[in-house]
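chain below, 160 aa
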Amino acid sequence: MRSSITGRRREVRVRRAVARDAKRLTRLVTTSRAYEGPYAPMVEGYKVGPDYIEAHAVHVAVDDDGRVLGFYALVLSPPELDLMFVADDAQGLGIGRLLVGHLRDEARRAGLDRVRVVAHPPAEGFYRSVGAERTGTVAARPPAVMWDRPELAIPVDVRS
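prediction:
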């Protein structure tokens, strides 16, 4: 995928995350503007550790300078999108769609037909725009999660 970032043409590719990416992925999560205000407690102190990266299918979108623009973590059993974040300054550039397309390819290779998503409420529109279907609502679990969250399924056989 080619994307224009800061006025220059840059190549964006998706690669498997490695342990040394952990700090950058953690920073992407904890500084996300999507989790400001009432959502801030959800990511406060959150860590994407090297062990997590090695145990799960974590993939990062990087530009030609190696800058991490976003990432996702796919849990294969049961199939679920555990994490997906795009850097604030890279939103609107197609990075999320690139990651979902990659996730579908990975899920297809694993023999999956759907991937469950329990979404951050403001992200539901994005997931629906890439073909996810609403399947229900996951109730709040205070004190960890103070709000209900949409539950969706991303069909694997659909291209975004």
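Residues 1-7 have pLDDT under 50 and may be disordered. The first helix runs from residue 22 to 30.
thats it, cya
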